[in-house]
Amino acid sequence: MQRMVKRYPEGKHKSALLPLLHLAQAESDGWLSVPVMNRVAEILDIKPIEVYEVASFYTMFNLKPVGKCLIEVCRTSSCWLRGANDIIRHIENKLDIKVGETTADGKFTLTAVECLGSCGTAPMLQIGEDFHENLTYDKVDKLLEEKKNATTHSRYVDHHTFRS
Amino acid sequence: MFKVTIDGIEVEIPEGSTILEAARKIGPEVAPPTMCYYSSLETSGGYCRTCLVEVTKGSEKDPRPMPKLVPACRTQAMDGMVVTNELSARVKEARAGVTEFLLFNHPLDCPVCDQAGECHLQDLSYEHGKYKTRTDFERRTFEKIDIGDKISLHMNRCILCYRCVKVADQLTDNRVHGVLNRGDHAEISTYIKEAIDNDFSGNMIDVCPVGALTDRTFRFKSRVWFTKPMDAHRDCEKCSGKVVLWYKGDDVLRVTGRKDTWGEVEEFICNTCRFDKKKTSDWTIEGVRDISRHSVISANKYKKLVKPNEFTLNDIKALPE
Amino acid sequence: MQRKLLFEHIDTEGIQTFDVYRSKGGYSSVEKALKTMSPDEVVEEVKRSGLRGRGGAGFPTGMKWGFLAKPEGVPRYLVCNADESEPGTFKDRYLMEHIPHLLIEGMITSSYALGANTSYIYVRGEFFYVIRILERAIEEAYKNGWLGKNIQGSGFDHDIYVHPGAGAYICGEETALLESLEGKRGNPRIKPPFPAVKGLYGCPTVVNNVETIAAVCSIVNDGGAAYADIGVGRSTGTKLISASGHINKPGVYEIELGLPVEEFIYSDAFCGGILNGKALKAVVAGGSSVPILPAELILKTAEGEPRLMSYESLADGGFATGTMLGSGGFIVMDESASVVHNLYTFTRFYHHESCGQCSPCREGTGWMEKILHKILEGNGTMEDIDLLWDVQSKIEGNTICPLGDAAAWPVASAIRHFRHEFEEYVKHPARHQQINFYDHCHNLASATT
Hints:
The complex is a heterotrimer. Chain A folds into two domains: 2-55, no CATH class; 69-147, Glutaredoxin, CATH 3.40.30. Helices cover 37% and strands 11% of the residues of chain A. Chain A contains seven helices and four strands, in the order ααααβααβββα. Chain A has helices at residues 2-5, 17-26, 34-44, 48-55, 77-81, 84-95, 137-147, and strands at 69-74, 108-113, 125-127, 130-132. Chain A has a four-stranded mixed beta sheet with strand order 2-1-3-4, covered by helices on one side. In chain A, β3 and β4 form a beta hairpin. Chain B is an alpha+beta fold. Among the domains of chain B are: 2-100, Ubiquitin-like (UB roll) (Roll), CATH 3.10.20.740; 224-318, no CATH class. Helix content of chain B is 18%, strand content 18%. The longest helix of chain B has 16 residues, at 89-104. Chain C folds into three domains: 18-229, Rossmann fold (3-Layer(aba) Sandwich); 232-334, Roll (Ubiquitin-like (UB roll)); 339-436, de novo design (two linked rop proteins) (Up-down Bundle). Chain C contains 20 helices and 13 strands. Chain C has helices at 18-23, 28-36, 39-49, 61-66, 91-98, 100-114, 128-143, 174-181, 210-222, 224-229, 261-266, 295-299, 311-315, 318-321, 339-353, 359-376, 382-395, 403-427, 429-433, 444-447, and strands at 77-82, 118-123, 159-164, 205-209, 231-232, 235-236, 238-245, 251-256, 259-260, 280-284, 292-294, 308-309, 329-334. Chain C has a five-stranded mixed beta sheet. Chain C has a four-stranded parallel beta sheet with strand order 3-2-1-4, with helices on both faces. Classes of the chains: A alpha+beta, B alpha+beta, C alpha/beta. Chains in contact: A-B, A-C, B-C.
């Protein structure tokens, strides 16, 4: 974490807040609890409220627990034009949950999100850092099967993402 | 000095002044309404968009008009600039729009709101709003949070002017509240249950333009227009000690900072003066406060009075309609 | 034959790696600039090229660079805007993913021109796999002496850092991006001051889009004049277009500005025509925020001239009959698509992405979404259409940043050109509601692979 702080000029260490929150979330079962955010505030020597303000602004930070596999289906324009709603409905039926819900066994959380910048390969969804594009029902089924036995939470980032 | 013309009236202002400062120098007839700007808070303003004005001439040097309406509070006045405010149909239209937006999610609970009577949003909607409501969508609501026994937070009424956040940032060194979430879910909050308690936290009440932050010790004690404001001061080691005492009979119901013509506090006061000194004997009474804002409190009801104990029912009866 | 300046080598095996990229002439612009040109000469070439900002606004890049304040003893920054989030736009991701060294080369050359010793690439958080690719490329560049101290013995020092966003469209607005890079909420700043004077950490800063910075390489290599030779009028050079929606070949295409829209949609070299041979209904030509145009107006201007892929031609007719090139997010809708529902997805997007600082955008975007939702639910009235028009008009031009306009324009243009469809929806909602699902007209099990 100190490595990230060094990327910014002296005294501008607050800049490391976003990358640090990403790393903290990846290490904390995919969500940011108050103690985790307080710890980040401590590392950066900023007020806890500054962390809460920022964490709650950005959609990638989860302030509540999520399932092991967080499915984010894009539903904006191009994806909608190519069947995002069908994909969402299909997953809802498969997992027997609605958008925004987590399966009872805590394995899956389904969310519908706004444009993920993958319009040319619509419809698509994101799980952790992986983009799954040009979706069909078959592809979705295989993906759900594969993720069923995930032992760790899906994550966007790990300690190798950034250059040392 | 720069010369600026607003609604046809010319005024001289020091270089670096904003259009709003120029307009206020001319007076209330041309000064645009403000909901988020606050003269004694740095970097305030720019958010609410009620002070949008039209610049029909940029400056003597560059006379081109500005294509968009600009926020008077955050736009520097230039030498030779010509501004239209109330005289501009575009401005009136935009301001009515902004007023409607501010009311879109604002609860109409004025009958039970302690801010009623000194609420800037009431004034704004009365002066610039539309007669008809064009929405019947359910209003946004927030979960109520407790921020201590001195200040009440009614987030549903908040218009996100950011003033209270700036108070905490600029008057104290340990801000525990801020703006959380995004868009129309954004809210003033401490996130975790935490009392907002420092020597100057009470000023959040004074700067709040609406009833989102009110004095909990004054809660439901009286409608503000039934109280009488008196200027008073005391020796205080934390602040200037210059306040307004709000009386009902002989009781001090509330203590606030002194607000100027524009409803803005010039000198912030400490929580000791505000919350702990509610006896007349704590204060040196200076006289009746002349409330210059155009609200019900300023109906000059108490003009003839010097001391609270001279106030009688006959004085009210004697006032002209 | 269309010339390619950015994607000339994109199909080369291993172009992601330094060695292959270098073997194809990579980093020659850095070499040329550092060894044979002064920083001002680089700025002059960029001015001469006529390059305009590729993020959407189309502001002349050379002029933007010229505004950069240069006070003594104060660091200057170049920040690359890789927060690509405009619905319909995915060109920057494609470029960074497939030819990351092109961006890094452009960053070094541009930073030299601007006198910046540190630069940041702000990548939208959802693109973490792209960040990995960039970090690897940056590592290679350091190892080969193209980054760090005294680059290629020139005396010029430069460091590049990648900074992740975390899910906020608004951070594509340059001052919101700077706030975010400083570790704050992505609230746009009130301008002035502009970043060229007070940007990152209060220092003079240039914020440029990925594609803009990448274009600097060929401008320096071949000269601004050669770049300006390509294109038409004030639309010089090439542009990356992200094509999506109901077309046979969605993807990113590098085109010479001035290509006829009709050719772009129907030629096999580009979109390859409308999916399943259907008829074209409408196009959003420059990303979600630009006005939607019906088929007849996107193919030809109101005067009957062929519409070209250029800043001027697409804008021909103003908002009454024209649109904008924007970021080049080209979304195509066939005859079966519902303009009303598509608009709803845009409006929901802007509502979701509004930062909440200023009241017209904070409240207005939510209001518009609610009205559209009401219409989609079958509860709309004719008055709602007028109300929707009025609400967008109260947002436009009255907000701190362009997000307000971006939210208003799609609504205005949809009503302007497709009012009949809104009325139809209000009268017969059930007929339209099924279009909400794609299976109604296409077979998802086989339409995509």
